[in-house]
Amino acid sequence: MAWTLLNLIEGLKDGQIKFFNPQKLDDPRYDKLPLSIRVLLEAAIRNCDGFYTKEEDVENILDWQQQQNKAEVVFTPARVLLQDFTGIPAMVDLAAMRDAVAKHGVDPSLVNPKCPTDLVVDHSLQIDYSKCAIQNTPNPGGGVGSNHSQNPSRPAPSRPLSRGSQCGGQQGSCSKAACSDLPASSGRPGGSVQQIENTPLLCPFHLQPVSETETALKNQEMELSRNKERLQFFKWCSNTFKNVNVVPPDVGAVHQVNLEHLSRVVQVTDGFIYPDSVVGTDSHTTMVNGLGILGWGVGGIESEAVMLGQPVPLALPQVVGCKLVGSINPLTTSIDIVLGITKHLRQAAIAGRFVEFFGPGVSQLSAPDRTTIANMCPEYNATVSFFPIDQVTLKHFKKTNFSQEKLDLMESYLKAVKIFRSYEDPSEDPQYSEVIEINLSSMVPQVSGPKRPQDRVAVSSMKEDFQSCLDEKVGFKGFHISKEKQDIRIPFLHCGEEYQLVHGSVVIASVISCTNNCNPSAMLTAGLLAKKAVEAGLVVRPYIQTSLAPGVGMVTHYLNTSGVLPYFSQLGFEVIGYGCATCVGNTSPLPEPVVDAIKQGDLVACGVLSGNRHFEGRLCACVRANYLASPPLVVAYALAGTVAINFEQEPLGVTSEGKEVYLRDIWPSREEVRETEEDTIISSIFKDLRQRIEKGNMFWSNIECPDSVVFPWDHKSTYIRSPSFFSKLSKEVPAPQSIENAHVLLFLGNNVTTDHISPAGSIARVSAAAKYLLSKRLTPREFNSYGARRGNDAVMTRGTFASIKLQNRFIGKAGPKTLHIPSGQTVDVFEAAERYQKEGIPLIILAGKDYGSGNSRDWVAKGPYLLGVRAVIAESFEKLHKNQLVGMGIMPLQFLPEQNADSLGLSGKEKFTLAMPDSLSPRQQLTVKTSDAKSFAVTAMFDSEIDVIIFRHGGHLRYVARTFL
Length: 965
Prior knowledge:
Blueprint: E1 9-12, E2 17-20, H1 35-46, H2 55-62, H3 64-67, E3 72-75, E4 79-83, H4 84-103, E5 117-120, E6 202-203, E7 208-209, H5 213-240, E8 244-247, H6 254-262, E9 266-269, E10 272-275, E11 277-280, E12 294-297, H7 300-307, E13 312-315, E14 319-325, H8 334-346, E15 354-358, H9 367-375, E16 384-386, H10 391-398, H11 404-416, E17 434-439, E18 446-448, E19 456-458, H12 462-471, E20 490-494, E21 497-501, E22 506-512, H13 520-536, E23 545-549, H14 553-561, H15 565-570, H16 592-601, E24 606-609, E25 625-628, H17 631-640, E26 653-654, E27 660-661, H18 663-666, H19 670-695, H20 698-701, E28 739-747, H21 754-757, H22 768-775, H23 793-799, E29 817-820, E30 825-828, H24 829-838, E31 843-846, H25 859-867, E32 869-874, H26 879-887, E33 891-895, E34 912-914, E35 925-930, E36 935-940, H27 945-953, H28 956-964
Parallel strand pairs: 4-5, 4-11, 5-8, 11-12, 14-15, 14-17, 15-16, 22-23, 22-24, 24-25, 28-31, 31-32, 32-33
Antiparallel strand pairs: 1-2, 3-13, 6-7, 9-10, 18-19, 20-21, 26-27, 28-34, 29-30, 33-36, 34-35, 35-36
Helix pairs in contact: 1-2, 4-7, 4-28, 8-9, 13-17, 13-19, 14-19, 22-23, 23-25, 25-26, 27-28
Protein name: Iron responsive element binding protein 2
Region (Disordered): 136-169
Domain Aconitase/3-isopropylmalate dehydratase large subunit alpha/beta/alpha: 61-128, 211-641
């Protein structure tokens, strides 16, 4: 190729900021590349060093149309994202590397990640102490105040509750903490509205903010005690390592923090600007694809290699273009769209490929919609779900943590390198491997019911469908109501007023924000609908049991911030608390006159909720038909008072002036929802997150940690321990060591997965790891899990191959045992390996096809290395695991085609010798000899010269350590 790095450099802002411009290659193929591939190309150009990334990689990516699924390329991301469980072993290895170089007289402070690394401490808080249990939660009903005197299930307290006292004293009352002495909201239309700030904890019975001090501090004390060593180590890492940013506990989940704080869209380093990109240790790292950031999930070993400066190898992927066309139905929510697109892509068989969205329909999706779709990427098995940046994305960034100066710079750069999109301009459409077209118009609002979640009903057909349910025989949908009884009307009195119930009357309506309604736009649409309904003069019939159950306090926060919470309240949708309520049947009894009317007419009364459970009789024994619906549709059906309505043709209600109001009159537009979401909710959430990160918390601030360049290991610790990866580290690369008279540690068959190899789950009481922990004077209750002890190589090595499902041909049955060949004894895998090491005997593993398939795990190659395994001879390898073995200095050897242990007559009890040549090359054939005079050829599964170099150094860690020596 006729180019050099220098002649691809251009400048922005009068040359103050430079960038590599792939357009200066003057190659027409660039304009036809998918934008996700253009990001790969830019990274290859910028990192082209002739070693990890070569000019042929750049050429192969540019020639993507011909090279997809053929060429092997590498990708150097801009940053690494670690969760704390996967971050522990990576940071422990770096701390151990500092010790190793210090022994050679090198300044240990030089050892730092080469790639910027964010580590988010988002461990799960165990709730040892709680405030309130959601049991028999009183539900104020439509328009009726939430005063205790109006709810027969709870008597009014005899005096105001003061801070420090306990709420109530009956079943379902508050436990542990106290309600505040703030006055409760009346809950009546026009009454005072409780202003809820930040993310409050509410007493679900008194609807008052409660003091967080007692329970929060007790839970934090337990958390500190349980995780003290781990958190102290993280604190040391944050203070000591450069290029490491530790986000402390109590800030948020890793993907939330990544989206809302860490993502930069473009990076500026050393005067150069380039696209942001990331690899993270979780499959849902793809959420950032919705913001135009290329990234995906990898395993712990791969992320550690990237931290140490090595790129991610990948086969140049196919890119499926997902073209979105058509206009979104005004009543269709974001949830409908996300699930609809996910269903289409799941049926498209796109596993392992990139998905890139384009077409005029993309502009109708907000940034949160796009990130939610990208979050579903693992559901349809794609590698990424990429939404190139456009004006909608830029507008979103304005509401977050981007200054106008950065936005201008970002837009100028993205347009200069053509990774900015105008979805309305088809001339910008790239060429894709395949195009899947999805018509957004086909995604109509639906509900599920009346008895099962899989029975989907289009809202436009709801009236006819309910009628058919009345007609059909009793079954999954039918109620078999005779024709002469279908028009029955039962009058009853409620609060002095007369009402009527019929088949299809709504008696329970619950707006719930939980697992399937977590997108803010769905709840916000419901709130804006409530606001418009109140302003139009509509009311919810007071006998309908209404409730608002936010999944978390943040939902209440943004509903309050956007100003819609009072309107929910005026329609009777009062906040009842946080936790599972209506879904699991935790509803207070319906008013007796309602129950009597239902029984008198044998009516099929209905409940409508935006939760995820609704089987017959689950909400209430006398409510036979229950429908799952989006939050705004719950409000709509509550206003209508019946499910037997055609919203297009029939009004929701009539105002006191006699005006008919239709659903279309008060349904908020997507533009209105998006504007409120961006202007109020998003900016509020980002501001809150930024303040929490900047301010920190006392819990994290009070953690003491060592002030030292090298970590002072506590030899008594059973959680954090210096691993032996750097023992006997020499400055010079040692000569290749032949494997002589090795024994087989394990004789395995086909499809040995990472679940069989890597330690995971609980620690069995009869395992080698348990014996070790007992020797440290721990009780079985204190064993915790392998996941929690990933920073201790002694535990993890003993847990390697400890799966009860391991099929070892030496044993003949499943279990974590093997044969110690010299003695003939059957022992734990670790005990056998320990004996062999004491005897100075090297080890190999014999295996069948697809060795190492499955999800990557941190210890899937580290464990075998520490057990003394020098090589694995298999019929075939899962590619990712093969790379992991090389990365730990274990040789992956493959039988020749049509050969395996059985065809060669191997029993596994022979001794094996492999003479190592002075120079190794990729895919070189080597000869293995056995103690019974057999000889066979194997292929050394090195893909490149880099693999050979890494292997000769003894793996990634030793290679990087020697760069400091």
